Amino acid sequence: MEFWVLAGVPATSFIVALSGALMPGPLLTVTVGEAARRGFWAGPLIIVGHALLELALVLLLLAGVGAWLHQPAILGLVGVLGAGMLGWMGLALMRASKHSRLEFDPQAHSGLHPVMAGVLLSLANPYWLLWWLTIGLGYVMFAGKYGLPGVALFYVGHILADFVWYSLVSGAVAQGRRFLSDRLYQGFLACCGFFLVGFGGYFGFQGVKFLLG
Fold first, then answer.
1. Do residues 176 and 47 lie in contact, with contact meaning Cβ atoms separated by under 8 Å?
2. Model-wide pTM > 0.85
């Protein structure tokens, strides 16, 4: 049983992170511009900066998930807040799936080294911090029950999603290709939205169980 739970940590972490990565935002916009200027490696390098920042945050969360965080009331509150965030993200993705298009602007670049751009653009996004204080914290606390291997599996699954998506985008831009039709992109968004709503329900159920003791 524990094996399947551990196997599910990177799998669900990957899908949740991919759901966020798919949505257009500053990081995607700058990735396109930098890939047009620098070539394929701009995308992976931007995610290296993003990944280093997130690794630092995971370590900070680990340092803080001491005895006081493992009280039922704290676990329950994080679970309920994380569920709300997942549900909100899922519904937003489902709404976006009706009209979203991937619009690439090759002129949008940061003027920074790609690694530094990955760090600063992540820090400048308020939703990034909100995600980590709710969903990310809940994941770290859950995965932490299995020690460092559990947290490492969560982190690898999470950051792998960013590397896969942004490398795909960067490679397509560097080759001058449009690699994803609007209909297929909208289908990805809808599927991710349904998954997030369902996973949010699980998150919330676990949180309520902790609160009811």
1. no
2. no
